[in-house]
Specification:
11 strands; globular; alpha+beta; Glutaredoxin; three-stranded antiparallel beta sheet; 14 helices
Length: 287
């Protein structure tokens, strides 16, 4: 069976009906695009395996190529109304989609940041920049859940954070991003207004609070398990150095050492800034 046939078969038989209906042709195109990217790294002896839990392809191989061509893991721990996070997603992170570096990156978003848990059973969330940030964090979490493909959910997250920057880091009219991207609002709104939204946030809270070493500020950028700390703005350089593939992407070859912003300290948001955190309204979407 050729690549198109494999893609159609997987799309029809492995994808949940709700996702196929929501994703439509976009979902199938993204599926084939992901297959095409990975096929560039396939050598003799490899075979495809679909992972329904992760909604992604993995390549099973009996050769050394499996390890050699492994994508670089890039984790971004952030909160939606922190100026440094919004600028990082709007400008810095956008570059890897423009220059093709995303093809060698396994990008993972964690929208929780410097929030804290409290209340009964630790299920009330207190956000550093108030209840609006709690809402936007949940919107991000639900978008990632609703649209597993990174290219699709990043389009939506980027739209929101661009509006945050334009609105001087205040709550924007984020629902306009449904119209801007052309994505159906139903799966995100159902998630946000139901129990799934809080479930996702608590999951991200656990992931953030389990970091070793603990994060000190956001955006907190981690490459292959190693925090970049104050060098987060230089993440592309670190990704290219970490990549072990046989063919270095052109974006890496053309990449000069990234310049760290002189005003970085004014953009990042440190953990436990009492004046902001103590006055933050709580978020408890489930009664």
């Amino acid at each position: 069976m050729d690549g198109i046939g494999i893609g159609i078969g997987i799309y029809l038989h492995e994808f949940p009906n709700s996702y196929r209906q929501e994703g439509g042709i976009y979902g199938f195109v993204e599926l084939m695009r992901q297959m095409n990217w990975a096929m560039n790294d396939v050598k003799a002896g490899g075979e495809w395996q679909w992972n329904p839990r992760k909604s992604s392809f993995t390549l099973a191989s009996n050769t050394a190529d499996k390890k050699v061509n492994k994508k670089v893991k890039l984790d971004l721990y952030y909160e939606t109304l922190c100026p440094g996070c919004s600028k990082f997603m709007t400008y810095d992170l956008m570059e890897i989609f423009a220059n093709g570096l995303i093809n060698i990156i396994d990008l993972h978003f964690v929208p929780y940041g410097n929030a804290e848990l409290g209340g009964q059973n630790n299920t009330t969330v207190y956000c550093q920049h108030g209840n609006n940030e709690c809402e936007l964090n949940m919107v991000h979490a639900c978008a990632i859940y609703a649209w597993p493909y990174v290219n699709k959910h990043f389009d939506f997250l980027h739209c929101i954070e661009h509006l945050v920057v334009q609105n001087n880091y205040e709550m924007p009219e984020w629902e306009s991003c449904f119209g801007e991207t052309g994505f159906d609002s139903t799966p995100v709104m159902d998630c946000k207004n139901g129990p799934k939204g809080l479930e996702l946030i608590l999951r991200y809270a656990n992931e953030t609070n389990s970091l070793k070493p603990p994060h000190e500020f956001v955006p907190w950028v981690v490459v292959d398990g190693k925090p970049l700390r104050e060098h987060g703005d230089e993440f592309m350089t670190y990704v290219c150095k970490a990549y072990k593939g046989k063919h270095l992407p052109r974006a890496c070859k053309n990449l000069n050492d990234q310049i760290v912003s002189e005003v970085k300290e004014n953009k990042i948001c440190h953990v436990k800034e009492p004046a902001k955190l103590s006055s933050a309204p709580k978020m408890s979407p489930v009664a």
